[in-house]
């Protein structure tokens, strides 16, 4: 392994001889008294990053000249822990976004500035696993950097993980979460039901609403075709169908998105399961 570029005394880049891809190699003093083309001291290697997206790789490399090495190490540990706990693949942008966020959060905390996460209730309720990882993360920051971040930051870490798993930016993820909460409130009061997080039926509905909200935010329409089950749903699952129409009205009024018949059918089927469960 040879040095291609020196970012600082502790970080270099190299090219994988098998794949030809650039890798970022981190280790204390790994580039000390070294130059391009020198062989990397294997004993000094602490972590190797392989970020396939060239743009994200450049952004990640730029962080090493702006952010303390210890912060980057902690962030990497949080991401590795998240990958072990979560079923979803995380977009490579998480390395840039979460590292940058944590560095700024630590700076704010040291300055006595606290930013409130106004979606904490939704995060704790809908995204319990991501929130638990966030709590683990702020515990790691306290242990390794001696900085006690507020619990709101566990929620922000959870949001970054959600964004990475959905391939969305932070703002879209927050909008999606707010929309899902509003739709659940419509369903709750219209059908007179109370959901229990962790229940399989609730989790299925939540997953459907999350992807539906993602399509709405990104203005991605399901191609409108003749929906053969629309009239059947309308005539046979009237309560679920009428509730779906209320969701349709809310979305079209607030997000300028035309909800298709196919979306109504899918949502009605999920709601019919909810109705059947509570009747039983």
UniProtKB/TrEMBL annotation:
SUPFAM superfamilies: PTS-regulatory domain, PRD (SSF63520), SacY-like RNA-binding domain (SSF50151). The keyword Nucleotide-binding does not apply. It comes from the Bacteria. Keywords: Activator, Repeat, RNA-binding, Transcription, Transcription regulation. One of its GO terms (biological process) is positive regulation of DNA-templated transcription. The keyword NAD does not apply. One of its GO terms (molecular function) is RNA binding. Residues 66-171, 172-280 form the PRD domain. Belongs to the transcriptional antiterminator BglG family. This is Beta-glucoside bgl operon antiterminator, BglG family. It comes from Caldisalinibacter kiritimatiensis.
